[in-house]
UniProtKB/TrEMBL annotation:
Residues of the Right handed beta helix domain: 78-215
Entries under InterPro entries matching the protein: Beta_helix, Para_beta_helix_rpt-2, PbH1, Pectin_lyas_fold, Pectin_lyase_fold/virulence, SO_2930-like_dom
Signal peptide: 1-21
Protein name, as recorded: Parallel beta-helix domain-containing protein
One Pfam short name: Beta_helix
Protein's UniProt keywords contain Signal: yes
Length: 400
């Protein structure tokens, strides 16, 4: 086993670890699977697993369960973890420990999710690339970047292409920043699901089926998603036909969706460039599938939309009755529409200088055990902006 070990005092200090921390270097070549997994096993808190340049042809998933470890490549075009020959259907890389930094490498063609972290607090994804190189296919892995059940999540400067569910997905987590990243040719570009307190900013989201989704779903351990800011993003030309496997919740996302809010609370959408989306630039809808979760509220509430720049939209609505509505209106659908869930008390507050459509669907009602929804007033007033998400300083330091 060829593992080269050297001193890593700077990284140790950054990660709050001891001076005894070391760098474990793994070069490309034969037995890459065994050597790389062994490095992730023998790593101690504070260590850096540094992956060399080259294409690492892997036949099984990798995993890390040690706290305070950095996994670092030489760049997302230079260090490539290639799972094309992966025998199983699991993740490319699975993280189940805290204070982990993943940076500057690529994951290609994993059979399952690209990089998944579960219960991994204070995790950083930085300058990564996750890609399915055969284009948009239903047989691609579901998620590219996939942190779940975590607190303090930073996704910074990543590129994800080809996920059959969501390129960048954060689920059942809290205190989240997704920024400076690119999501292209996924079913959903970026998805924040059943999560609390998230900022999604400065991203480029294009050529997906749906650009940015903010969902809340029933029958999950954490629900009642709220306090999400979507701002300063470019969300354009999300016209890739939906290629999600049948039965996935995102299989129902209409082709040509810019930003979609479903059953979430206190969501603010502002200062974005949104356009060239054939169904709508912004959709606010309730959850319409059957469910048996007494604590779940299917109604979106306290959604505010302001100061966005809208390009064309609504010329190819991809939902039942969409073309008929478009013809009745004598042209394209308006850039913003709300399905009418919950009635007028739950109408989104809209201060963009564009038309908006209320579909007037009142077939679903707010739950009587809802988490204290506070309906917006009907005077178009924009509420106070939610506070910015702040992460521990040590997390921000590693991406400087």
């Amino acid at each position: 086993m060829r593992l080269l070990i050297s001193c890593a005092a700077a990284t140790a200090a950054m990660m709050g670890s001891s001076a005894a921390a070391k760098t474990i270097t793994v070069a490309s070549g034969e037995d890459a699977q065994e050597r790389l997994q062994e490095a992730l096993i023998v790593a101690q808190p504070g260590d850096v697993v540094e992956i060399g340049e080259g294409r690492f042809r892997l036949t099984d998933g990798l995993s890390l369960d040690v706290d305070r470890v950095t996994v670092k490549g030489q760049g997302s075009e230079k260090t490539i973890l290639d799972f094309t020959g992966q025998a199983g259907a699991g993740e490319g890389l699975l993280i189940s420990s805290d204070d982990v930094v993943l940076r500057e490498f690529a994951v290609e063609n994993s059979k399952g999710d690209g990089i998944k972290s579960k219960g991994a607090d204070r995790i950083v994804y930085h300058k990564l690339r996750v890609e399915w190189t055969g284009g948009p296919l239903s047989t691609n892995g579901a998620y590219g970047i996939y942190p779940v059940e975590s607190k303090d999540v930073l996704i910074d400067s990543v590129l994800v292409r080809g996920a059959s569910d969501a390129g960048i997905y954060v689920g059942q987590s809290r205190n989240i920043i997704v920024r400076g990243s690119t999501a292209v040719e996924n079913v959903a570009g970026i998805e924040i699901e059943n999560s609390y307190d998230a900022d999604v900013l400065d991203n480029i989201v294009t050529k997906n089926t749906g650009g940015i989704l903010v969902f809340d779903l029933p029958n999950l351990p954490q629900k009642g998603g709220h306090n999400v800011r979507i701002f300063s993003n470019i969300v354009i030309n999300n016209m890739t036909p939906n290629f999600a496997p049948k039965g996935n919740i995102v299989a129902s996302v209409p082709t040509g969706t810019g930003v979609m809010v479903m059953a979430n609370r206190n969501v603010q959408i502002f200062d974005n460039v949104i356009g060239d989306n054939g169904t709508a630039n912004v959709m606010v809808v309730g959850y319409r599938n059957a469910f048996d979760d007494a604590e779940y509220d299917p109604i979106p509430s306290q959604v505010a939309i302001w100061d966005n720049q809208h390009l064309r939209s609504g010329w190819a609505p991809d939902f039942p009755g969409g073309f008929e509505i478009m013809k009745a209106l004598g042209g394209n659908l308006p850039p913003i529409f709300w399905d009418g869930s919950g009635g007028s008390d739950y109408a989104p507050s809209i201060a963009d200088n564009v038309a908006a459509l209320n579909l007037g669907l009142t077939d679903i009602k707010a739950s009587p055990v809802s988490a204290n929804p506070v309906p917006l007033t009907a005077d178009g007033k924009i509420p106070a902006e939610l506070p910015a998400i702040t992460l521990p300083g040590s997390m921000e330091a590693v991406v400087q």
